[in-house]
Description:
Blueprint: E1 7-9, H1 10-33, E2 40-41, E3 51-52, H2 54-63, E4 67-78, E5 88-98, E6 104-113, H3 117-120, E7 121-124, E8 136-138, E9 151-153, E10 163-164, H4 169-172, E11 177-180, H5 188-207, E12 215-216, E13 246-248, H6 253-268, H7 272-279, H8 288-304, H9 310-323, H10 329-347, E14 356-357, E15 360-361
Parallel strand pairs: 1-13, 3-12
Antiparallel strand pairs: 2-3, 4-5, 5-6, 7-11, 8-9, 9-10, 14-15
Amino acid sequence: MTSAIMQLPQSEIQRINSAVDQYNTLVHFVKRSLRDGLDFGKIKGCGEKPILFKPGAEKIATLFRLRESLERLEAVKDWTGQTFGEPFFNFEYKCTLKDCNGDVVAECVGSCNSWEEKYRYRQAQRVCPSCGAVAIKRSGYEDRQTGDKGWYCHTKSGGCNAKFHSADPAIIGQEQGKVPNERVFDQVNTIDKMAQKRAFVGAVILAANASNFFAVEHSELETIDADFEPKESIAEAQSMRRISVEVIEDVDPAQQNRDRIQAIIKHTGHTLQEVRKLAGKGAEAMSPSEMDLLIDTLLIDLAQTRHVPPLLSRRLLSEIRSEQPQITDDNLRLRLLDRCDTALSEQVPSRPQSEYVGAVSIS
């Protein structure tokens, strides 16, 4: 009897379940490691979906061992406005993310220009004609001699306490509200860096399949596209289940075991001779459960290089396998290292505070 719902080759099952494992890894990582307000957050005008900030994108890239490379596609620098009628700057970059094997995982193009509202304009405020401080306020009281509710330069805002008549042209003649930004030249480097950041964050979201959680941070005034996936709360995201299938063997089990060994020792640093000694038999003679035990042993050795006790790493491996019984070896490795780092950080003892009586420590 079988409860299979479909028939698939083993290689296809591995591909599907590897994608499931990656999603589950991201769910656990977002809940355990990313911080609201620092790594992601909501921005006014961008809807309810959280925006992934660059620090969060960097952590996700580190989790999945992604390496970035940036290529500048375009750079327009019209300092005098000769071409566009006013100074104009535009930068466009393509970010490419590769895995540890050098294979391209995702690419994304990001751009930024000085005609975006946050760079093209500024909010003009009244400045004091006497000291130049942005500290002009309207008085709420009438002058005792003239009865005029004039203007004054607020000292607590850095002003000089100068007084001005309510109709003084030096005050009311100043332009207010949204005005062209005459200092856009100070923001050229910021615009360049923003284009790079947008390309990187977008590529990370594509590589990690994280669009269900995050939108890309563009600017406060930009409306995020309305065709993103369902708005699932990060706190309520659930792990996905692996598929139930009837396996059609299309790979020799012995070769499968050898492939697993070759793939894992690239990360653990073991040699084939060491693996053979640990296994006590050849790959062709090992069952799936024996292979899992061998993989666990190699990962425990890897954890020891990070000063993680074998007993702790064995317990963590048991927890991960109970959560995801058929997790792939590579995702098992990533989850183990993440949990080892967390466990070690929680075990670091805090330094006791000294207590004093008079000038004598009694700690």
